[in-house]
Amino acid sequence: MENIFERMKRGELILESDPQYPELYDALIRGMRIVERLNSAYHTADEVRAVIGELTKSKLDESVWIVPPFYTDFGQFIRLGKNVFINSGCTLMDRGGITIEDGVFIGPNVSIITENHAEEPELRHNVYTKPILIRRNAWIGAGAIVLPGVTVGRNAIVGAGAVVTKDVADDAIVAGNPARFIRYIRKT
Question: 154 and 140 in contact (C-beta within 8 Å)?
Fold first, then answer.
């Protein structure tokens, strides 16, 4: 039997009654403890990278800049490229996997959410996931929400406050709720 983390990342509905659920619960508690430590005191940029590296179980490039507070309930499935900037108040719910490629700029209070719940009331307390990919040099505006399964294309811009429910093409600008195509970026 695959472990609960592999099944979760594959998008399987994870039931609270799953015999491996205690392992998932322990990982969630680990993530919340690390995030609490990050957000409870001032840290230099290097210290922030070290704590986020501990959270993600990866070494972050020295060009990554994250401004606390930063929120997640898990953290192990976040992957950050080089020259990534994440402004204050962002939430990355990563149980399905979040990949943020090089040069991505994320405004304050952005939510990137890979998790969802079943529609059926009797299953609603359980979670399934879909991965999110933010491609190279994308810009996610303040307060935007990126929902499960979305890919934001290279150089794309997601307007402030947008709710992104579908993939965003390379070089596209989207805005609104739900996010709609506005135009392509003008190249000079």
Answer: no
Residue 23's closest CA among 10, 37, 4?
4
Say how many C-beta atoms besides its own lie within 10 A of residue 7's C-beta.
18
Alpha helix (H) ranges present in 65-162? none
**Helical pair 45-56 and 21-39, crossing angle rounded to 10 deg:** 180
Residues 35-87 have pLDDT tens digits of: 999 999 999 999 999 999 999 999 999 999 999 999 998 999 999 999 999 99
Q: Which residues are catalytic?
A: 117
Q: Which residues make Cβ contacts (< 8 Å) with residue 38, sequence separation at least 6?
A: 48, 51, 52, 55, 68, 69, 70
- In angstroms, the Cα distances linking 63 to 23, 41, 102, 137 are 33, 22, 10, 14
Size (the chain), residues: 188
Dump pLDDT digits (tens) for 115-134.
999 899 999 989 999 999 99
Bridge partners (DSSP) listed for residue 115: 129
Residue 161 makes CB contacts below 8 A (sequence gap 6+) with: 141, 142, 143, 144, 175, 177
